[in-house]
Write a structure and sequence with these properties.
single chain; 83 residues; alpha+beta; 4-stranded antiparallel β-sheet; 4 strands; 28% helix
Length: 83
């Protein structure tokens, strides 16, 4: 039996030594660097409709390398430390 998702919950992730916070809610999920506010956010509707996969494929075709979480959360998708 599954449990109904009635309130958001957070979990900490350690990926290659970097800490992230994953928040899962009824609307979707959000992944941010530990101590930051901006990050990657996806709604369940975009995942079910395939919009998330389409955006991911488009992003991969436009970028030669995998963008960092900070780069994806910066305004305009640019890395704030590089000009």
């Amino acid at each position: 039996m599954t449990t109904k998702l009635s309130a958001p919950f957070k979990r900490e992730l350690d990926l290659n030594g970097d800490k992230f916070t994953l928040t899962v809610s009824q609307e979707g999920f959000k992944l941010v660097s530990k101590g930051k506010r901006k990050g990657v956010e996806l709604t369940w509707a975009s995942i079910v409709n395939g919009d998330a996969a389409l955006a991911s494929s488009l992003n991969a075709s436009l970028n030669t390398g995998r963008p960092s979480l900070e780069m994806m959360s910066a305004p305009g998708g640019r890395n704030p430390t590089k000009h």
